[in-house]
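so my prof wants the structure for this chain in the tokens format not the other one, which i didnt know existed until like an hour ago. anyway here's the sequence
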Amino acid sequence: MPGTGVIDLRSDTVTLPTEEMLESMLRAPLGDDSRDGDPTVRQLEERASSLTGKEAAIFVPSGTMGNLLAMLTHAPRSGYVLADGDAHLLNSEIGGVVAIAGLVPKVIPSKRGVMEVDALDEAIRTSRAFGLPGPALIWMETTHNGAGGAVLPLAHMEQVHRLGLTNGLPVHLDGARLFNAAVALGVEATRIAQFADSIMFCISKGLSAPIGSVLVGSHTFIARARPLRRLLGGNMRQAGVIAAAGLVALDRMVDRLADDHAAATKLAQGLSWIDPTLADPATVPTNILRIDLSGHALDARSWASAVKEHGVLIQVSGARQLRLVTHRHIDSAAIARTLAAFVAVARR
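here's what i got, hopefully its the right format
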């Protein structure tokens, strides 16, 4: 990270705000967002709805809260939320799904985040029979964290959304890295967002704002979500201080995400050269690499500990899996140092 000599590849959430963001935070017009409204927050919400083609938006402190708010707003308790088994929702946010939203997870077979549409259709029909909890919400994720930053094909998203429309089910998109997906596909975010009734995206990951996420949807949906945000403790006061950084993130930081994708590809190519089992560059479309260590003697914790000795931080994502995420603080020199650290550990 800048000024520390440490290369932090654990997540793109470690990005620091730019100078322009810090300056905008100093001069942002402020108000009480839980009372009369904060003008800078309102501006961020308007920008977010415009960029996604949705009618309205609501600013929240985190992506986890945004996703939870979507569930509470869309779905009645005890209903099924249908998602692929590797979804971040079912692996990192399951407590909120069950304990707070009161929903029942229904796992749909998938490959790299792409659900089997026939299996999804069957799950919807069977869950309406035999007195089971009815289907309440269909869930998609792009880019897909568990699938190494995979991007859902637009044709697949259209199929899923059409299935939702046919069955009267809302479709929510966990788009924490929505703009990474848009850049990878070479389309505007609206092209992706059209296939979901609501979308959550983060401004605090690769876009480099320090805090916050946005939930977008119809006017009616957002109107229902606002009192629920208060229920979750998500109402903030002069939140324009952080919303100002989000405006800069959306205006200045989207196009440069391509640099992060290129860095991830370069890193994957280097790791593949060290050992072809470590990474396949063809499966790294955005800024996330997942490394399978099942063929190696050292487990994930041992690898992470060993490369840390060389000043490189990586995330352990299971006994035999590592995750590396590139971001704007990872330049060519950082990639070279990271590869050198992996070479040193591999030689052990």
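also thought this was worth mentioning. The chain has a mean pLDDT of 95.
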